[in-house]
Amino acid sequence: MNKWDTEEAIRRWDMHAENFTAKYTEEGDRSREVLLNPALQACMGPLGGKKVLDAGCGEGYLSRKMVKAGASVEAVDYSIEMLRLAKERTSSALGITYHHGNLEKLEMFGDQSFDLIVSNMVIQDLAQYEQAIAEMQRLLVPGGRFIFSILHPCFQTPQSGWVKDETGKKLYWKVDQYFNEGPLEQAIPYDQEEKFLYFHRTLGSYVQTIIEAGLLLEGMIEPKPSAEMLEKYPHFHEDLNVTHFLIFTTRRSG
Ligand SMILES: C[S@@+](CC[C@H](N)C(=O)[O-])C[C@H]1O[C@@H](n2cnc3c(N)ncnc32)[C@H](O)[C@@H]1O
Question: Domains in the chain, please, with CATH?
């Protein structure tokens, strides 16, 4: 068995779905509320009347937000446990359909099914990310957009992290082994034993993959906390020194 594959990443998501999302609010976790959601919303623009796919929906907070903003949403995830939570937490009145599927091959959807596909913090989990990005291109109508956020590949590298002084004060963020592409494990704060599995690729690899899939790269956004969010959650000041996330906005040509 290959330990480092998508099936293994999903096994770990199944195991940790409940704990990972235990503190989620309707805005997701704190990083989503402060950094990812405002940036994603700005990229998505008005959603009224749009047919949207939430690709790797997890427990579904973003699907629910998008429906409330006027979209018609279908959602897909490969973790049975995440889907169980999503269904539990979603009122049927919202009309979201949750599907079980691997983003690397979404046979349940026909070509050109969606105006917009959003994938929040998922693409770095996929062993075959090139296949998944090509699949998103297939599913978009001409002119449709694929927007995805990932761990920032320039700062979340093998051996990256804060360097601290002897009192524990954070001094600076260290980056190392940037060109060492492949599987990586990320610590889970509440579990000393197990780690999440994801895959590191360079920024250049992501850009090249987007281009080879036939998508137009329209923007790259590095979310940072707004003044309003800094007032609400002052400890996010440290996120003005290093960015943890990157959002790509891409379009299928019309
Ligand atoms: C970090 S969570 C993000 C969930 C959700 N988008 C959010 O922001 O809360 C990553 C999600 O990607 C899903 N996932 C990982 N690999 C996948 C794959 N190959 N196909 C579909 N979903 C996948 C996991 O099951 C998990 O729900």
Answer: 6-153+202-252 (3.40.50.150)
